Amino acid sequence: MNRKNNKNMLQNLSLITQVGLSIITPIIVGVYLGGFIDRKVGTDMVFTLIFIILGAGAGFLNLFKLADKNKNNRK
User: Do 38 and 48 contact (CB within 8 A), yes or no?
Assistant: First the structure.
């Protein structure tokens, strides 16, 4: 493999990793934060579900921002 192909492959691998982390991290934070609030308040999974939904929304918002940023960088 030449250097250009190797650099392109590493850039794509980095992008895939960044996409995965930018989606899963807010969801995991939502699970833990919702579980913590549920334990403190004494509710059953109410806040966990709310924060999972908010985390998923934040993750996909991160994905759209990352895709837009990457689109502008490749022009």
Answer: yes
Question: Between 67 and 59, whose confidence is greater?
Answer: 59
**CA torsion angle for 9, 11, 15, 17 (degrees, to 10)?**
70
* pTM, rounded to two decimals: 0.80
| Total count of domains within the chain | 1
Write the CA distances from 42 to 13, 25, 31, 54, 72, integer angstroms. 43, 25, 16, 20, 47
The larger pLDDT score, comparing residue 72 to residue 6, is at 6
Q: Which of 55, 71, 54, 52 is CA-nearest to residue 22?
A: 55
- Tens of pLDDT, residues 8-23: 888 889 889 999 999 9
Is 39 within the bounds of a domain?
A: yes
Q: Is residue 49 part of a domain?
A: yes
